[in-house]
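Support case: flavin-adenine dinucleotide complex. Customer-provided input:
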Amino acid sequence: MAPAPPHHVVVGGSAAGVAAAFGLREHGFTGRVTLVDAGTDLPYERPPLSKPSGGHPAPRPIMPSSAYREQGIELRLGVAVRDLDTGTRTVTLDDGDRIAADAVLLATGVSPRRLDIPGRGLDNVLVLRDIDDARAWAARLAAAGPVVLLGGGFIGLEAAAVARRRGLPVTVVEATALPLGAALGPELARLVVQQHVAHGVRFHTGRHATALHGAGAVEQVELDDGTRLPAATVLVGCGVVPNDALARRAGADTGDGIRVDGHGRTSVPWVWAAGDVAAYFSPYTGRVQRIEHWDVASRHGRAVGASMAGVHTVSAEAPYFWSDQYDRRLQMFGRARPGDRMVLRPDAGPEHFLGFWVRDGCLVAAAGLDAARQLRAAKPLIERRIPVDPAALADPSVDLRSLVRAGTAAA
Ligand SMILES: Cc1cc2nc3c(=O)[nH]c(=O)nc-3n(C[C@H](O)[C@H](O)[C@H](O)COP(=O)(O)OP(=O)(O)OC[C@H]3O[C@@H](n4cnc5c(N)ncnc54)[C@H](O)[C@@H]3O)c2cc1C
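Agent response - structure generated as follows:
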């Protein structure tokens, strides 16, 4: 009797898991591929959930259902993986089913960090991670009443912009002195905050919520300085925690996420990991870390899928993310860290922004507001570690593509 074809099971059907399943096929894996996700919807894109949509949120599929059929990717939706048995190489689902697998990829992502303060269980205290959350948020946007956002990260600020567009009073409570300051650096973060202030958003920075009050539904948010903010809706955006419990129980190395090598292998040979849940070395930061961006998760998933198919692949593109707030698009390639030299390109104008971060003579990150063309031009400078003259970056008359050409010729 011919041996059964190898079976790879992907846990988590989002950016990384879907890309990995298709990546397996693209790179010649002809065995069985099963994609398991706890959600009941066909895998869908998360970024639109916090952006203006103007109607009832509907999941936007990453791939049409026909693509899974054509590629022979079996979908098991609405069922979570409960356990991995490394001894028998078996995946146990929470409906009791057990699947034999030759390899398992954990693309289980992250979950919103929950509040740990009195009143956290009141009605209309929301998070925004999946389509059900987005529907609950849309329902609250349709209701009147003040919105308080706990956490001034990207999702919180995108939600602030959407709520202001609906004419709702919006207050952002942020623990640090400057929302997005760590991610974007002070110059760009200040510009983003100014934009929100101009649209009527109020900020309480350097503060955190100590209690939520209300009878049934939330009515007030109490801050650590005693301030009480009126609230009909509270959206909590206080960071995330990696869904790494399966890996931990299977004995894989975990820290902040599941530790993987450059190809996505965990310390347990049978188990791989990709996407937001995976912590790996990034040459762009020089550190082992998780990156929580859609494009990065998708590219990482595809590369790990390729490696699982035997085509060893490293996802080497510069990290990229975008964020839409009001009618502006913020984008960033690469990663900056404290101590990098910031170079601003002055022609961007008071409301625009084009900034670069330089480390050891090379461009390590570039960010802009409504500056897509220039940022695309800067990307190869980051990826190829082309030495750059900060004065040329700051000079609006210098075409960034000419720096790439000059650097490539010199190499
Ligand atoms: C509202 C919102 C807006 C965003 N906007 C942007 C943006 O504008 N730009 C950007 O770059 N990034 C954005 N992101 C971040 C981006 O969506 C994530 O980086 C990306 O979704 C990570 O993909 P992932 O596949 O690693 O994990 P996730 O998307 O977290 O998916 C993990 C999947 O695993 C499933 N799962 C978990 N545990 C199990 C289990 N035990 N069994 C079965 N299934 C399981 C979950 O159901 C989930 O579907 C946004 C995120 C959110 C929530």
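Residues 327-410 form a domain with the Enolase-like; domain 1 fold (CATH 3.30.390.30).

Case will auto-close in a few days if no follow-up is received.
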